[in-house]
Amino acid sequence: WENMDNYPCVLMGNEYTPVKFKRRISRMTWNNPIDENGKPKFELIRRLENWADIVEPDKITIIDWIALPANELYNIGHVIQGIQSKVGNGIALIVLQKDEASNLGRGRAFSEELSSLYLTIDKGRMTVRKAKEWFTHDPNREVYGFDITNGGVEFNNIRPLAKCFDCKGSGQVKGNECFTCHGTGYIEKIKPKEVTKEPELDF
Question: Which Gene3D superfamilies does this entry report, sorted A to Z (predicted)?
Answer without folding.
Answer: 6.20.20.10
